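Have a close read of this protein, sequence plus structure tokens, and explain what the tokens say about the fold. Thanks in advance:
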Amino acid sequence: MQQIETVCVYCGASSGHDAEFARFASAFGTACARRGLGVVFGGAAVGLMGRVAEGALGAGGRAVGVVPRFMEEAEFPAAGLTELVVVESLHARKQKMFELADGFVALPGGLGTLEEAFEIITWRQLGLHDKPIVLASCGDYWKPLVALLDHVVATGFARRDVAGLYAVAESVEEVFERLSA
């Protein structure tokens, strides 16, 4: 496995109802910067995306936002980004984020976050990459998803090794342990 220099972070353009989600996102961004890791994310100044960027940039780190042209105004870019990459579509956004990252972390988020997490896990299952994937389960956020994936395996729709495609972490520190494992 290659050394991780840049982490792709999937997370919500909303902050959710629990203030702990925003605290976790900010702490994660800060921790990335302190470890010398760059952050690649959806580029928005709002929600958990904005908190990750603020944490990383506030600690002197790098934050690269990738935004599709049609969303550039709706999810206005976070201030002070190291780089803003504007692409033509959501598909191009995901591909660019994949190309720029050495590992992936999914924080709490909505349908877009779910879709991104599933896609990157699926790509790993298909052998398209071997980059680490961590579900950062702040407040047990990903527990229902892990249960669903266990159900998919139990009912014969996925191989037993699905759980080996990703790791689950409960704390910021544990995310980094799982990324480097």
The chain has a mean pLDDT of 94. The chain has six helices and seven strands.
